[in-house]
Design brief:
Layout lengths: L16 H21 L11 H4 L3 H24 L13
Length: about 90
């Protein structure tokens, strides 16, 4: 019969939970720094709401991405074809 493989699976740096936690915490810190930086520079606002909401541009971008994901789920339902769509033979 065939040989059993005794090789160990290669371990990548994202396989470790501690590295994933480091990335998660780094992203949180970067987001907090960007929101705090909003207090320390002069903004050229077009509408008053831009100055009222702290981190307005970050929230605007986040909500825009959420909208895109939800819209894509609706579009998937509308445009989805069966798995055998291209396999079906048309009788003439």
């Amino acid at each position: 019969m065939g040989k059993k493989s005794t090789r160990k699976a290669k371990k990548y740096w994202l396989d470790s939970k501690s590295n994933i936690d480091k990335i998660w915490y780094a992203l949180i810190v970067l987001c907090l720094i960007s929101v705090c930086a909003d207090f320390f520079y002069h903004k050229h606002i077009e509408y008053k709401v831009e100055d009222l909401i702290v981190g307005m541009y970050g929230w605007y971008g986040f909500l825009g991405c959420v909208f895109l994901v939800l819209a894509s789920k609706v579009l998937r339902i509308l445009l989805m074809r069966p798995e055998t769509f291209y396999d079906e033979v048309k009788d003439e």
